[in-house]
Design brief:
Elements (H helix, E strand, L loop, with lengths): L1 E3 L14 E7 L8 E3 L4 E3 L6 E2 L1 E4 L2 E3 L12 E8 L7 E8 L2 E6 L11 E2 L1
Antiparallel strand pairs: 1-7, 2-5, 2-8, 3-4, 6-7, 8-9, 9-10, 10-11
């Protein structure tokens, strides 16, 4: 999974710091719960699905364990920079037959972008 993390004050790329990924099930047996990477469990409160790694420009990436994914379930993927200096980022993700499809919509202070990643 990837996220573009930019500063809300300037729109500049955030290239250092700590960015945490969150994965919330929207449907299925774990609907409303967050995947916790440390023990591959589902929690009622927001839990880290992993720490993201800076790649380039504003791009950060994380691999989320296969235990999190169930075919046909809808998820909300979020990325948050530890200082809350970023524009909020989220994706709706659908695991369709174990191939995640991502639809991204970012609208705060930016034009809406839609990206489909097979």
């Amino acid at each position: 999974m990837h996220a573009d993390i930019v500063a809300k004050a300037s729109g500049d790329a955030i290239v250092a710091g700590t960015v945490t990924a969150y994965l919330k099930a929207l449907t299925g047996a774990n609907a409303g719960k967050y995947f916790r990477a440390s023990d591959s469990s589902w929690q009622a409160s927001q839990s880290s699905a992993g720490e993201m790694t800076y790649k380039e420009e504003a791009s950060w990436e994380v691999s989320i364990a296969s235990a999190a994914w169930t075919a046909g379930v809808r998820y909300k993927f979020q990325a948050a920079e530890s200082g809350t200096l970023h524009i909020p980022y989220s994706d709706e993700v659908i695991d369709a037959n174990s191939s995640a499809v991502s639809i991204k919509a970012v609208t705060d202070k930016l034009d809406t972008m839609i990206e489909v990643v097979p």
